[in-house]
Amino acid sequence: MAGLIVRRLFQLIPLLLGISFIVFISLHLAPGDPASMIGGPTATREDLASIREDLGLNDPLFTQYFRYISGVVQGDLGYSYQTKQSVTEAIMIRFPNTFNLAIASIIVATVIGVGAGMISAIKQNTSLDALSTIGALAGISIPNFWLGSVLILLFAVNWQWFPAAGVTQPPWTLQGMKELILPAITLGTGSAALIARMTRSAVLEVIRQDYIRTARAKGVKEKSVILLHCMRNAMIPVITVIGLNFGFLLGGTIITEQVFAINGVGRLMIQAIANRDYTMVQGAVLLVATLFVLVNLLVDILYALIDPRIRYE
Amino acid sequence: MATDTAVTTDVQVEAPIPDQQNRVKTVWRKLLQNRWAAVGIVIITLQVIMAVFAPLLTSYDPTAQDLSVKERPPGSEGHWLGTDEFGRDLWSRILYGARISLIVGISSVLLGLIGGVLMGLLAGYYRWLDGPFMRLMDLMFAFPGILLAMLIIAMLGTSLVNVVIAISVWSIPSCARIVRGSVLSLKNQEFVLALRSNGASDIRILFKHILPNCTAPIIVFGTMRMATAILSTSALSFLGLGAQPPTPEWGAMIAAGRDFMWTSPHMTIVPGIAIMLVVFAFNVVGDGLRDALDPNMEVR
């Protein structure tokens, strides 16, 4: 197991370097001169030359990249061209909101998805199964930015059960939970649909196995057969889907944060793209992509922990 | 699929493409027997009709403003789906929006397929290209799709054309992996070996013989990708990174309608339903195609 973790960690290094290079180079190729952005419209030619020299923009590209990456590993993502604020600081202030939203969404997605998938499989070919299948198809097809708007209209404006926008309280307080519920449902619905489909097919596959028939023949209660014998084995692929979806939800927070005006990394990124604040975009993209890769690594390790066969491959 | 290799004495070696017409008919019949896929086909057909005949289906210009009829609810005289904050007819905006979503969807999927198929074919066929190409694809997979699209838009600027480019780049890695997998399983089959021994060029083997045998997974991927492309286009436009006002794009319409959600919810609800139906349609047709093209699957 330790060998697998070490191997995976080593594989991560070139991937992270690659991500940082793509992020660095893509925004380096973007139109516009950073020196003019910092200097503003009143900057003289000498001012611009001095800014370029200070930023090291006259250095070869690889020198600039190594300077950038050495800053990144020390937690320095540079300064915003627009606001002059530290990018690391701006991201760190907003990151907890993004992380809490992603966690809340994966909880919603798992509860709804596993529950619906299980019911659908156990009650195969009944109206409950059909309802769950239609729900899953609809869940995959609903644009989450639209679902969020409709939820706000119904639950925040019409019935006033939940706040319409913003996150002001920590998620462990009642108000914090109320603030997170609508965004979490909005973001989690698509993943819930995928998890439901995966759970259904995994349970259906396991439920036909001989050992399940044996358990039933021995007189084990149906509840125990499903929860103890069936779910345990059916959960292996489901956990993978949940883990992979957590990574995608981190990306999905960008849209949900905008819908619910949550001050997170995604919203910061959209504002930065609109303002052509490249260093801010760079920092935010790098953070989300790195987290995405790390989550996938964790899923791999978790998968190996649950299923011993993976370790020996 | 690739079984009945025909090698003749006059060096004519043909890839084992089954009788195309019969195959298409069988797939089509299986697809129509799947009720969800049949519903999806109806919705897609309606969208195509709306997109192609938009000028005939409405007398209103989708961008023409008439403030005397602004924010009219659905069922109003002359505007059966109502109007928006500038008095623009919502039905005509939905019709022209169908055109935009179809054009953007098709062009981004096609571009993505071209890139993905080329990379997949080359990576699968030439061992020396496999490593570098697939590592590049792994790197692209390291970004959540929407993030990759936003990075590209940050670089190129906000416009529908750049959305097409962003979504097609996002589609390349998945498509390349699918095609590479098929090529790896095909390239050592007897008909390819026979072609090679008969002196057929690599280009001929790849494009005339291997590619036609990879079409099933490519078609399924392309159909499913249409759903993702339409959803992503509207999401990016909703965020202000795609279509700009007054373009009648569905995602942009939802974004504009949000400011009037309390007074005129139809401005948000109508385009949302349009997106949902079309995305649903491409998803179920994709699912149906996958089942219809898989000889091991029973029709539901």
UniProtKB/TrEMBL annotation, chain A:
Residue intervals passing through the bilayer: 12-30, 101-122, 134-160, 180-199, 234-255, 284-306
Keyword hit for ATP-binding: no
Which compartments does it reside in? Cell membrane
Top-level taxonomic group: Bacteria
Q: Name one GO molecular function term.
A: nickel cation transmembrane transporter activity
**Ranges for the ABC transmembrane type-1 domain?**
95-303
Q: Which Pfam families match?
A: BPD_transp_1, BPD_transp_1_N
Q: Which PANTHER family match?
A: DIPEPTIDE TRANSPORT SYSTEM PERMEASE PROTEIN DPPB-RELATED
Output this protein's name: Nickel import system permease protein NikB
What taxonomic lineage is listed for the species of origin?
Bacteria, Bacillati, Bacillota, Bacilli, Bacillales
Automatic annotation (TrEMBL), chain B:
Topology in membrane: Multi-pass membrane protein
Keywords assigned by UniProt? Answer: Cell membrane, Membrane, Transmembrane, Transmembrane helix, Transport
Kindly give the SUPFAM superfamilies that the UniProt entry links to this protein: MetI-like
Q: Which Pfam families match?
A: BPD_transp_1, OppC_N
Keyword Membrane: yes or no? yes
Mark the transmembrane ranges.
36-57, 100-126, 146-170, 268-286
Q: Where in the cell is it found?
A: Cell membrane
The GO cellular component terms are: plasma membrane
| Sequence ranges assigned to domain ABC transmembrane type-1 in this UniProt record | 98-286
InterPro entries, alphabetized = BP-dependent_transpt_permease, MetI-like, MetI-like_sf, OppC_N
Name the PROSITE patterns on file.
ABC_TM1
Q: Which domain of life is it from?
A: Bacteria
Q: Its principal location?
A: membrane
- Give the GO biological process terms: transmembrane transport
CDD domains named in the record = TM_PBP2
According to its UniProt record, which protein family does this protein belong to?
Belongs to the binding-protein-dependent transport system permease family.
User: What PANTHER family does its record include?
Assistant: D,D-DIPEPTIDE TRANSPORT SYSTEM PERMEASE PROTEIN DDPC-RELATED (PTHR43386:SF1), OLIGOPEPTIDE TRANSPORT SYSTEM PERMEASE PROTEIN APPC (PTHR43386)
Q: What is the protein's given name?
A: Peptide/nickel transport system permease protein
Q: Which organism is it from?
A: Melghirimyces profundicolus
